[in-house]
Amino acid sequence: MRPIEKGSLPIDESGTPKIFSKYQDAKEDLIERLGAYCSYCERRIDASLAVEHKQPKEKNQDLKLSWDNFLLGCANCNSTKGDKDVELDDYYWPDSDNTIRAFEYLQGGILLVNSNLTNSEKELAINTLELTGLNKMPTPNSTGSDYRFKNRNEAWEQAEEVLQDLLNNDTPQMREIIVKLARATGFFSVWMTVFREDSDMLLRFIDAFPGTCRSCFDRQGGPIARPGGFL
User: Fold this and answer.
1) Residues whose CB is less than 8 angstroms from the CB of residue 195 and which lie 6 or more positions away in sequence, other chains included
2) Per-residue pLDDT tens for 32-85?
3) pLDDT tens track for 87-97
4) Which residues, 6 or more positions from 112, have their beta carbon under 8 angstroms from its beta carbon?
5) β-strands 103-106, 110-113: how paired?
6) pTM of this structure
7) Contact 97, 230 (CB under 8 A)
8) 141 pLDDT above the threshold of 70
9) Of 80, 173, 184, 214, which has the maximum CB count within 10 A?
């Protein structure tokens, strides 16, 4: 899960902080700052990406139009979260924690809780997975429309393929092409994992994906604790 920075409440052309009459009106500002990616599964969604409420709007009417409560969500992550009661401190959030440290991304599209976490950190990571369903895997007879696992696996295969291309032809142009492919595909954490031995590429990915929290990474692109976050 990519750590992000939304920034403060957007301002209008007159320099006045925006007041959203409908939460859907915040979508354009969120995409401008964060890119057209689901804040949870990291897929690029060019259509049907929605303004997602960290704390459900049905049970928190006072937060329905709150910028601080907004993220971007795909249909699968949004529906899995649903209107479950949410205590913010029981989960990791991409806009306040270094969520890339919470999980391990493995070959085949598999997503696990990071084994290096402490027990208390693992508990929050497990809660986050259960809330979003990011670790759901298709069963042999499944016919559902949840393509997160499949798409993550496809991104992994693409990343491995172009990593081999880079090893065979390491040029600045090839590195630029890979970054463009990563942005078009989404799944920031997959690309960061596959290219983990190449600090130049890690820094390129961090710079290329809009809204990535730079303070969550060191000078070599390795994940570090987020200032003020739980992780």
Assistant:
1) 159, 163, 201, 202, 205
2) 999 999 999 999 998 889 999 999 998 889 999 999 999 999 999 999 999 899
3) 999 999 999 99
4) 103, 104, 106, 135
5) antiparallel
6) 0.95
7) yes
8) no
9) 80
Beta carbons of 107 and 149 less than 8 angstroms apart = no
- Compute the distance between CA of residue 152 and CA of residue 42 in angstroms, rounded to an integer: 9
How many residues comprise the chain? 231
pLDDT digits (tens, 9 = 90+) for 145-198: 788 999 999 999 999 999 999 999 999 999 999 999 999 999 999 999 999 999
Q: What is the distance between the alpha carbons of residues 37 and 192, in angstroms, rounded to a whole number?
A: 16
Q: Per residue in 106-138, pLDDT tens?
A: 998 899 999 999 999 999 999 999 999 999 887
Which string of DSSP letters, residue by residue, matches 69-126? GEEEE-HHHHHHHTT----GGGS--TTTS-GGGTEEEETTTEEEE-TTS-HHHHHHHH
CA dist., res. 149 & res. 82, Å (int): 19
Single-letter residue type at 118 = T
CA-to-CA distance for 32 and 74, rounded, in angstroms?
16
Closest Cα partner for 71 from 46, 37, 48?
37
Residue given tokens 């997503």 in the structure block: 111
- Read off the amino acid at residue 163: L
Backbone phi, then psi, for 181, in 5-degree steps?
-65, -40
